[in-house]
Design goal:
- With about 400 residues, this protein is an alpha+beta fold.
- Helix content is about 45%, strand content about 15%.
- The protein has seven helices and twelve strands.
- The strands form three sheets. The protein has an eight-stranded mixed β-sheet with strand order 6-5-9-10-12-11-8-7.
- Strand 9 and strand 10 form a beta hairpin.
- It starts with 5 loop residues before the first strand and ends with a strand.
Length: about 400
């Protein structure tokens, strides 16, 4: 079933009630826009003061968007005013010097009956002009120095960024090659992650041959995720600390790219209802930087499947839902996708499916039944504070 989406000023609202509230907010904002000269700094200051004082009551995020817009315009107007004032003061000094010289020349001419300027007055005027020119030259040098320092910092950042990017890509290229080499360890390997126990004893599992060599490099390896024709082709780690692989690579070196990792509460042996994988949204497209391309249904139609192997078994997953969410406060009563790891029954499972279907940006026509294995990919979404972009799929084959 397709969930009707209401849009006002680029914001999406799930219910008709929220939509009507947003329309009322828009009417208030439109009146304020029409009645305020946004080129007039005093008018902006007045409007900003009224907004800060809560004179206008908004019921949706449109109000906060408008307040942010007014504050940004006010700040910009302040910077422009300061620049004009400084320029005015600089020109004023030269003009005062010229007027002083003209006055001195006029007085001398009046006394002598001739329009002459004394040598002393000329020297005073020249000194004033020279002083102003020295000030300008000093400011020019300071600006040049600041720009040079900024350029050096930018260059340094670019070098470091390029180094980490090169090292990261080289590491994963080497890991991909290692995955293809024949295994040099026994077929049964101690389990690196959470262990499912029967009668108090861990059940040994046979590790797939292609991942046995990789386990020698890092015992925290739990699988591999791949989406064809994208950068997403990475090993997946799992530890008891969900923070560690935010800034470490598989070689346990510091790396701002981090590593794709599975939520610490997921279990590949039992297995848990949902495997949740996290990765950074890198601006160069690495890690899960391309995941938000699924916001376009056309991209989904070309990439409907995700390959995710645990170290014990292979899996192909078909995408069901694509949506935006965020990290909520503990006290907020709302569906939190990142807490849906184990369904405690069919009713809870179906409820979660309904929540995600309602959030989905479009209808894929794919659904899941209680007992299906799910896979969730999660990355940052910069459209709002603590925003997240999420893709959910179900397993269709091994």
């Amino acid at each position: 079933m397709t969930q009707k989406i209401f849009v006002v000023e680029g914001r999406q609202f799930r219910t008709e009630s929220d939509y009507n509230c947003a329309r009322r907010d828009k009417e208030i904002i439109d009146r304020l826009r029409a009645g305020t000269d946004f080129e007039d700094r005093e008018a902006l200051q007045k409007l900003a003061g009224e907004l800060r004082a809560g004179k206008y009551k908004f019921g949706t995020l449109l109000g906060q968007d408008f307040r942010d817009e007014v504050e940004a315009l006010l700040k910009k107007a302040g910077r422009t005013g300061q620049k004009k004032e400084k320029k005015k003061r600089g020109l004023g000094a030269v003009r005062r010097a010229e007027r002083g010289a003209d006055k001195a020349a006029g007085n001398a001419g009046h006394r002598s009956g001739q329009p002459a300027v004394s040598e002393k007055d000329n020297k005073v005027m020249e000194e004033i002009v020279a002083r102003e020119l020295r000030k300008r030259e000093k400011r020019r040098k300071l600006i040049l120095l600041a720009c040079s320092a900024a350029a050096v910092c930018c260059l340094g950042y670019f070098v470091v960024y390029s180094y980490y990017d090169y090292r990261t890509q080289s590491t994963y290229d080497a890991l991909s090659e290692l995955k293809e080499k024949p295994a040099i360890v026994p077929a049964v390997t101690p389990v690196p992650g959470p262990q499912y126990t029967l009668d108090g004893e861990a059940e040994p599992r046979e590790v797939l041959e292609e991942y046995q060599n990789l386990l020698l490099k890092n015992r925290k390896l739990i699988g591999w995720v791949k989406i064809d024709d994208t950068y997403i082709d990475y090993p997946v780690m799992q530890t008891t600390d969900n923070e560690y692989y935010l800034d470490h690579n598989m070689n346990q070196e510091y790396d701002k790219n981090g590593t794709i990792f599975m939520d610490k509460d997921c279990d590949v042996l039992k297995p848990s209802t949902n495997f949740i994988l996290y990765g950074h949204h890198m601006r160069n497209g690495r890690m899960f930087g391309q995941l938000d391309q699924y916001k376009n249904e056309s991209f989904y139609e070309k990439h409907p499947y995700i390959s995710f192997d645990t170290i014990y078994e292979k899996g192909t997953y078909q995408i069901m839902y694509v949506f935006r969410s965020r990290v909520y406060k503990e006290t907020e009563i709302v569906f939190k996708y990142y807490q849906f790891i184990e369904a405690n029954g069919e009713q809870e499972f179906n409820s979660a499916m309904d929540e995600m279907a309602a959030l989905s940006l479009y209808d894929t026509g794919v659904t899941a039944q209680y007992g299906d294995q799910l896979l969730t990919l999660s990355t940052c979404d910069y459209q709002e504070t603590d925003g997240r972009f999420v893709v959910v799929a179900k397993k269709i084959s091994e």
